Amino acid sequence: MSNRPTADFIDILTQSNVPVTEADLNEALKSEVQAAGSSLANDSQMSPFWRWVRAAVVTPVVWMIRTLLAGHIMPNMFVATSERWALELKAWEYNLTPKNATKTVGVMTLTKTSAADKVTINEGAVIQTLPIDGVTYKVLVTQTTVIEAGQSVGKVPVHAEHAGAAYNLPAGYFNILPQGIAGIASAVNEPDWVTTLGADEETDEELALRIQNAFTSSGEWHIDDVYRSMIASVAGIRSDHIFFENTGDITPGTANAYVLMEVGPTPLDIINQLNHYVMQEGHHGHGDVLTCVAIPESEHTIVAQVVFNHNLSDQQKVNELLEVEDRIRAAFRETAGYSDMTRARPNSRFSVSQLDTEIHNAMPNVASVRMSVDGQVQQDIVSLIRQPRIKSLTVKEWDDE
Predict the structure, then answer these.
(1) What are the phi and psi torsion angles at 62 (to 5°)?
(2) CA 24, chain centre distance (Å)
(3) N or C: which end of the chain has fewer CB within 10 A?
(4) How crowded is the C-beta side of 278, counted as CA atoms within 13 Å?
(5) From CA 347, how far away is CA 363, in angstroms rounded?
(6) Cα–Cα–Cα angle for 344, 350, 354, nearest 5°?
(7) Which H helix or E strand runs over 314?
(8) At CA 346, angle to CA 340 and CA 349, rounded to 5?
(9) Sorting pLDDT into bands at 50, 70 and 90, what band is 43?
(10) Could you tell me which residue, 379 or 192, shows the higher pLDDT?
(11) Do 160 and 141 meet the contact criterion of CB atoms below 8 Å apart?
């Protein structure tokens, strides 16, 4: 994740010779008084004159400098340091609207106990996940659906119980019917089940990145930032999760825009919508051929051997191993759980030693973790324009005694 820069405006004012403390302002005032030709007979701290000056001049001026100027006015002059209200005003200047939270919309695949039966799935039926970092994610059927006799499998439209990107889970996560449906043996979300991305309300960080991008995309030519601005306007897509490859494979001006999701793979329906908007509806530069595609993936075999502290019961060990697994899956962007885990991303080095450390620090019952990637112990994953994903994951206890 890209972070906005920070600035110490008190230090900036100090370097500009602006007094920012009462002592500095006292000295500045004394110098000005003396420069004006006045003579101070009593300039001690207890002087009635300076006590009045402090109360009437120094204290209010220091408050204005430190609190009003350095704490509010100066930070909100810049996108990098602005608060929300200032970011929203700046967004309006660039015709940007902060993105609201949205619910994931998609389809679930249901398998009948008998293909010969006609089965009705009522609106409101629930399909859910196992708990992920203590949260159970649920989707609800949005309209009563009939799977006709002769069909062993059918699809039903669903939407997430709540708004948020955390519901854009990969295939297989939604697989539990908390209340059985007569005639239905199982339910699951298959690959590309999402038709509308779920999204959290746009954060200050994300909005600032879009404003920054809007400024650089304001020229006439369709440079990368113009396309980045178009794609990032879709709820659920961050501007720093779009990667460009200028290929020239078809004609000059040909490029790919690779789109990464915060959680799960990039749905095919979303890619198709983006391509239709850019190319079919004419939102591309003259001679440009821009193709939006899901970020390519590299798959890795992960083995984690866990050393526990002594005196854990067998059930405690099972629970700890499940949490280690969930933490690793979160690090590879399968879920939104365990936000303290560093996420793998394209064009970067994913540190396996950092992954080990984060698991170790967060789980007091874990004494050590020994991680291997594709058969190599402690091997980092260095990715180009590819998102590291888990091909297979094995988490087991390591008995080194």
Answers:
(1) -60, -40
(2) 43
(3) C
(4) 30
(5) 29
(6) 105
(7) helix 314-331
(8) 70
(9) low
(10) 192
(11) no
390 neighbors 332 (Cβ within 8 angstroms)? yes
**Residue 244 contacts by C-beta under 8 Å, 6 or more apart in sequence?**
224, 227, 228, 255, 256, 257, 258
DSSP conformation letters of 232-259: HTSTT--GGGEEEEE--SSSTTEEEEEE
Between strands 387-397 and 297-308, the pairing is: parallel
β-strand partners of 306: 369, 397
d(CA 378, CA 351): 8
CA distance 294 to 354: 27
Q: What is the CA radius of gyration of the chain?
A: 29
* Contact (Cβ atoms closer than 8 angstroms) between residue 103 and residue 119: no
Place of tokens 């409101």: 124
**Of residues 143, 186, 130, 66, the one with CA closest to residue 337:** 130
**Start-to-end CA span in the chain (Å):** 40
| Residue type, position 364, single letter | P
Summarised one tens digit per residue, pLDDT across range 298-353 is 999 999 999 998 889 999 999 999 999 999 999 999 999 999 999 999 999 999 99
Residue 18, number of CB atoms within 10 A of its CB: 15
* Phi, psi values for residue 41, rounded to 5°: -80, -30
Q: What is the pTM of this model?
A: 0.82
Token pair in block for residue 225:
């930032």
The owner of tokens 């790919």 is 256
Identify the CA nearest to 383 among candidates 354, 355, 351, 348.
Answer: 348
Length reported for the chain: 401
Q: Please name the amino acid found at residue 300.
A: H
Q: Tell me the residue ranges of DSSP E strands in 138-189.
A: 138-141, 145-147, 153-160, 184-188
pLDDT of residue 234: 85
User: Which residues does residue 387 pair with via DSSP β-bridges, in sequence order?
Assistant: 297
DSSP state for residue 80 in the 8-state scheme:
T
Structure tokens at 11: 């230090």
Contact status, residue 309 vs residue 365, Cβ threshold 8 Å: yes
Residue 194 CA to residue 171 CA, distance in Å, equals 10
Residue 212 pLDDT > 90, yes or no?
no
DSSP state of 134: T
Query: What pLDDT shows up at residue 5?
Result: 84
Q: Contact, 328 vs 367, CB < 8 A? A: no
Query: What letter does residue 167 receive in the DSSP assignment?
Result: G
